[in-house]
Design goal:
CATH class of the largest domain: Alpha Beta
Number of helices: 21
CATH topology of the largest domain: FAD/NAD(P)-binding domain
Distance between the termini: 46 Å
Largest sheet: 5 strands, mixed
Strand order of the largest sheet: 2-1-5-3-4
Shape: globular
Number of domains: 5
CATH architecture of the largest domain: 3-Layer(bba) Sandwich
Length: 676
């Protein structure tokens, strides 16, 4: 057969005379985007993605339907081609009705594949579940116990009855894996010859160390405290996170080859400049260890503590003398940790002072409930006006009675004082748990915000110093939840890896298709009660620091995982449409209009067809006719109303369809799903 030469994107390649541009390019390892082409089927040319521009040719051509001309020069990346392909993708995505990933995934700051690991737990594959989790969270047993699980607030199961218990399922799988004879250990890449110093061994520092070590870099973590773990170790009470669990996960990271150095204070034991000059890159994850003050007269008295300091001392085994009457100021989870810890330290009367109502309190409802069960008294709509002392020691706290006024910038109704109304409590200790701040001692050359946090690029974590990155509570907006710190560390680790290898750090937020689902659309789902984990009785748990929760039984965990609706697309990893959609920045909403009707049907016997994901590429129709020789599928209707429908007219056809699956194998968008 006569051969010809053509040039595609600057590369000269060889093909046979009479072949299409797309065919020749594919045989030479050049991918021209396409959704409706298959070399075994007749040319169709429907998707409009395979456009190329020929040198000296006035019009764009479809590479799948255009026979290549000998000596021709083609490009898939000219401005005209990119613009046309982008419009074609935006048109397709504007009519695409499907979830690329599950809503829980989108609400997880670390973007864990929740649907993936929950399915593995349901199947009894705990090790595989942990492998999936550790792609984003290297300390799942710890995080599963303390995360306030924003993922659960976006779980679609809540539209049926209650969301999945995602966080506890994570802890269950991780605990089982840690207790096994061979816990999951990822493979470490070949040594890169590059070194990274991480300052701070909390959740952010540990996470970054894990991923950078897996990439083959030499990693050393410096921490000021006696043990690694940061706030997980020194800020979370033992009854919520047993330190033996955290230690196992820290040890697993160390076993990968991460060097860990404790009791090292920057600016005292070693200078920041020494660390910087001794490594190819530095990541600062020093956290936020300074508690915010109460902000009223008398806060300098002996007996006024910050929540962070109080919890740290208790976790280090230094139980402070807090007396019998304790007031905790704040309504967040740190305040709950402080008040419940005060009970365990022997206080007889523990009060929580919060200026808003319970409905506005940021603490998890279960934390408030368990605190009440343990005897904590909540004084909502009160605010410290003055801490009164005697001989320099706290004696009383005077509270201003509050009421809710108009909403403030956060959207919550602003608490305002009720003029002339006060309440006084006899107290021995006042614990301030209203926030925490970063105090980056020894890091004076790093540029800070007006709030004292490190200015770090939101995408890469890069600071004002070349090769110096930052992540976690010490950056930008300040302290948040541990999973946020881990998410930032993941991004910083990826950026540091690119920096060390001389690769670009232009990380773009991925585009996902999302589906609007209502409770009515899930009305046919069987209602299954959320698994309830047993906990120790209040009168037992408030006297010690033993773990409050008893954990899921295996039966509970498997059944709970089976409640998952599997919202995300089954074919996401192989979907050509979403891969092409993320090669450029697209804005399908600008072309939004009337959508095709969306429905699912299972008339293909063992295949579910989702009309919302169908792009009418016709691959399924053509392969059924040309390859399977059945013609079961066909286009029905004309124009905008066109849909693909099956036609079963005899038992033999049904039997063939049951075992064929050729159409599902070729579908480029996940519109066809093999059942069973």
């Amino acid at each position: 057969m006569e051969q010809i030469k053509i040039t595609v994107n600057g590369k000269e390649i060889v093909g046979n005379k009479g072949e299409t541009i797309l065919n020749i390019a594919a045989k030479n390892g050049i991918e021209i985007p396409n959704l409706c082409y298959n070399e075994n089927l007749k040319i169709y040319g429907a998707c409009g993605l395979c456009l190329v521009e020929g040198e000296g040719m006035p019009k764009l051509m479809r590479a799948c339907a255009t026979v290549a001309a000998d000596g021709a020069v083609y490009s898939t990346q000219t401005d005209r081609v990119v613009k046309a392909r982008k419009i074609a993708l935006e048109l397709l995505m504007s009519d695409h009705e499907g979830d690329c990933v599950a809503p829980c995934h989108l609400n997880c700051p670390a973007r864990t594949d929740i649907q993936g690991y929950v399915k593995q737990i349901a199947l009894g594959n705990d090790r595989e579940a942990v492998r999936i989790i550790k792609e984003k969270i290297p300390i799942p047993a710890s995080i599963g116990r303390v995360c306030p699980h924003p993922c659960e607030s976006n779980c679609r199961r809540r539209l049926v009855e209650e969301p999945l218990s995602i966080a506890y399922l994570k802890a269950f799988a991780a605990d089982r894996d840690l207790a096994s004879d061979a816990p999951y250990t990822p493979e470490v890449a070949v040594n890169s010859g590059k070194s990274v110093a991480i300052i701070g061994g909390g959740p952010a520092g540990l996470s970054a160390a894990y991923y950078l070590r897996l990439a083959g870099h030499s990693v050393t973590v410096y921490d000021a405290m006696p043990e690694m773990g940061g706030m997980l170790r020194y800020g979370i009470p033992e009854y919520r996170l047993p330190k033996a669990v955290l230690k196992k996960e820290v040890d697993a990271i160390a076993k990968l080859g991460v060097t860990m150095k404790n009791n090292v204070k920057i600016g005292k034991d070693v200078s920041f400049n020494e660390i910087r000059t001794g490594a190819d890159a530095v990541l600062v994850t020093v956290g936020a260890w300074k508690g915010s003050s109460v902000g009223c007269k008398g806060e300098e008295l002996d007996g006024v503590l910050s929540g962070i300091d109080f919890l740290r001392e208790v976790n280090m085994g230094n139980i402070p003398d807090i007396g019998k009457n304790v007031a905790v100021v704040g309504g967040g989870n740190t305040a709950m940790d402080a008040c419940r810890t005060a009970v365990r330290c022997g206080a007889e009367n523990v009060y929580v002072i919060y200026r808003r109502t319970r409905a506005e309190a940021p603490a998890e409802d279960i934390e408030i409930e368990e605190a009440i069960e343990e005897g904590v008294q909540f004084l909502f709509l009160t605010n410290p006006d003055e801490i009164i002392g005697e001989n320099g020691k706290v004696k009383e706290i005077k509270l201003q009675i509050m009421e809710l006024g108009e909403p403030d910038a956060s959207g919550r109704r602003k608490p305002v004082p009720v003029e002339g109304e006060f309440k006084t409590l006899n107290v021995d200790t006042v614990i301030s748990a209203i926030g925490q701040r970063c105090a980056p001692a020894g890091l004076e050359t790093i540029e800070l915000t007006s709030r004292g946090t490190i200015i770090a690029d939101e995408t890469t974590g890069m600071t004002n110093l070349d090769g110096v990155f930052a992540a976690g509570d010490a950056t930008n907006r300040g302290a948040s939840i541990a999973i946020d710190a881990i998410a930032e560390a993941n991004k910083a680790a990826r950026a540091i890896n690119a920096y060390l290898l001389g690769m670009p750090m232009d990380f773009r937020k991925p585009y996902y298709s999302k589906k609007n689902v209502t409770a009515e659309m899930l009305a046919d789902r069987e209602k299954k009660t959320r698994a309830v984990m047993s906990v120790k009785a209040p009168e037992e748990r408030n006297k010690c620091f033993d773990a409050v929760i008893n954990g899921f039984t295996e039966e509970q965990a498997r059944d709970e995982a089976k409640r998952c609706l599997e919202c995300g697309c089954h074919d996401f990893a192989e979907c050509k449409l979403i891969r092409y959609a993320n090669e450029d920045v697209i804005t399908p909403e600008r072309l939004a209009g009337k959508k095709h009707s969306c429905f699912k049907e299972q008339r293909l016997v063992t295949i579910e067809r989702d009309q919302g994901k169908c792009i009418l590429c016709n691959l399924c129709v053509r392969t059924c006719k040309e390859e399977a020789k059945q013609g079961i599928l066909g286009l029905v209707g004309r124009g905008f109303k066109t849909v693909i429908k099956p036609e079963f007219d005899n038992p033999e056809t049904v039997a063939v369809c049951k075992d064929c699956h050729k159409c599902a194998d070729l579908c480029p968008t996940g519109a066809l799903k093999i059942l069973g």
